[in-house]
Amino acid sequence: MTRFIFADLRRLWAGSLVVVLLIAFATALGVAVTLQERALRLGSARAADRFDLVVGAPGSETQLLLSSVFLQPSPLPLMSGDVLSKLAADPRVSWTAPVGFGDSFSGYPIVGTSTALATNLSAMSEGRVFSKASEAVIGAAVTLPLGYAVKPMHGTAGGETHTELAYRITGRLAPTGTSWDRAILVPIQAVWGLHGMDAYGHEADEAHAENTAGDPAAGVPQDEAAHHDDPGHGEHAAIDPDAPLDEHWTAETPGLPAILVKPKTIADAYKLRQDYRGNGTLAVFPGEVLTNLYATLGDAKRVLSAVAVGAQILVAAAVLMVTVMHIGQRRRQIGALRAFGAPQSAVLMIVWLELFILIALGILLGFAIGYGAAMLLSAMFSGESGIVLPVGFIRDDVKSVIAIVLFSAVLALAPALLAYRQSPAAALRA
Amino acid sequence: MLSLDINSVSVSYSGLPTPVLDIASLSIEAGSRVAITGASGSGKSTLVHILTGLERCAAGGSIRWGGVDIAEMSERSRDRWRGAHIGLVMQDFHLFPGLSAVDNILLPARLSRAVKPGDPDRALMLLYAVGLCRADQTIETMSRGEMQRVAIARALLRKPGVLIADEPTASLDSDSGDAVARLLIDLSVSNESTLIVVSHDPRLTGRLERRITLSAGRIASDREHREKAA
Ligand SMILES: Nc1ncnc2c1ncn2[C@@H]1O[C@H](COP(=O)(O)OP(=O)(O)O)[C@@H](O)[C@H]1O
Ligand SMILES: [Mg+2]
Question: What are the residue boundaries of the structural domains of chain A, listed by start?
């Protein structure tokens, strides 16, 4: 029987190949969409998981999340710098770190922060954490060597290059699977200095500090005007690259777009979020914001799934048509076998198996192609964002595979039953 | 060897005013060799289908092979009975391309799970008997005469009690037709099978001891000519 079936398939290899490929591509489409959606959800959730609590100025929670966790450039309003000193002193806080954005280097965002983040985000895979204003630590995905001089460019692309300061890379972090793998971490005091917000060391006038603290545009690269009109502009050249780190946060600390907070316990996390909502601050759980974001994106996912399902139905119809034609002539040929002594059940089995083998091969191949495509897409996405998208099958996928296989087994039964019921005399006359 | 007794067999198709086959009674002795002739459309193939149980006749008819009435059998038991007792040879072979000669001979038995230990050897022996020696040659590379000889070997594999052929030489050139005609008669004798051949071919019908002529589904004549028996 199997020898017969394989001889048959070999003889009609072109038709068989078309059927297998059609089914494979339909399956691959569905598999890729499912895997990619899942990978995006898991990957971003894992990336967000690294950060328990983010505090920013009141505004869009989504924007706060995108900027601080996913390092997407967007103008964030600033909150008063004393929030940082309050949080740092809070007994419920394990560690806290400021984040300040503004510059980039060859596509990598330069993030001003403190040693607290640089040491807690991930272990150092080589080198050491920055210890003075002009040193930098890079994420695992930044392809620059240690010792390299990073000349910060204002903004993300096409901005002017700051000539006052070049950071020297002193260490590299182990991979985290987050956007921070693509970040260049520098002491935040350097960022402040470059953007004329330095409240320390250079006796910056009170007026300036107050001004920046209340100005939503300051410290944000997009606002060129504010930058150039900044009375502190002249101080740029005064940055001392060898200035020691100053991580002693006070009420004088300049305004900040976001603060990352590691609470000691889950209960502390909820209390902190409660305490820092309102009164000039907005505290969010990144995971929660992400969940809300998915809820609003749910419709888009449904559209995507509908497209995939629609394509699959079309291909299923095409496959059915091809197979009905493909099996059609041989249904008679195989039916004639009964005249020579083969039982009816063998006729049913042959037609069914032949079709089922093709469909099963197609599904198998489709899963492989879909998996490969999802891996490829994830790799491309990771390259751009640093977020690792874990492509993988879950236990429930086994169920859907079984469902699909059962469905195709039933589908293959249709031409098999036609062959089964066909009169052998009619088959002989054909 | 099987004997045949059929009674009040009638086959009609909707849309046709008269039955395409209408035989009150017909008997064929076990081991005899019978030719069936008649004009095209006279019902010869229909008779073959009825005799082999591939088609059912109208209710009331009986088709007894060695005393067993196949008209009363279920579809499934008729399939099994046919596999065991009938060897069939058709005008256009119905062999399977992609398979070798010997695999084609064994195919129906394999599909019925009825292959006996000696069958592969018997297949080779039969192939040799029909004058072919390349057992592994695939069907599509063979000449039509060779194909028909493989079909004869296939029909004989399970030592059927009756060998039935429907115009076995009609699509062959005269030399191949001659060989096939001779093989059918010789092998039915050596395998002790009753032989029923539908044919217009005088080389074939002339060698058989009885000739039944059909006309419009009825038996028009039934003659024995023992003097010409092979
Ligand atoms: N399935 C069918 N439906 C209608 N008519 C049929 C069918 N099968 C055969 N016939 C008719 O029955 C008659 C006998 O056919 P057949 O037995 O094949 O003739 P022969 O073999 O003697 O040439 C023909 O007229 C044919 O057209
Ligand atoms: Mg005919």
Answer: 2-45+295-429, 53-284
